[in-house]
Amino acid sequence: MRKAAFILFFGLMTLLPELTQAQCAMCRRVAESNTESNSNKVGKNLNTGILYLLAIPYLLGAVGVAFWYKNRNKT
């Protein structure tokens, strides 16, 4: 049961990026329109948002590894 849940979880995680690919075109369009109008504030906010999106998976992975490391000898 535990192995099946593990496989199901990572199987679903591999499918999620395809659902979010539609947003890439929107981000690109916003970035291009703001570069043309010389609006740096929106560009900076977009870069901050990208950094948040980039950092979240690494933070979740680090928390998962720390949780696993803490509980690995308690069985």
Verbal overview:
This protein has 75 residues and is mostly helical. The protein has one domain (22-75). It is 88% helix and 0% strand. The chain contains 3 helices and no strands. The protein has helices at 2-20, 22-36, 40-71. The longest helix has 32 residues, at 40-71. The protein is elongated and about 60 Å long.
Mean pLDDT: 76
Proportion of residues in β-strands = under 5%
N→C terminal distance: 17 Å
Order of helices and strands: HHH
Give a quick account of the main beta sheet: strands, pairing sense, barrel closure.
none
Please bin the fraction of helical residues.
over 70%
Number of strands: 0
Number of domains: 1
User: What shape does the CA trace take?
Assistant: elongated
Rg result? 19 Å
| Class from helix and strand fractions | mainly alpha
Query: Tally the helices: what do you get?
Result: 3
Please mark out the parts with pLDDT under 50 across 5 or more consecutive residues, or reply none.
none
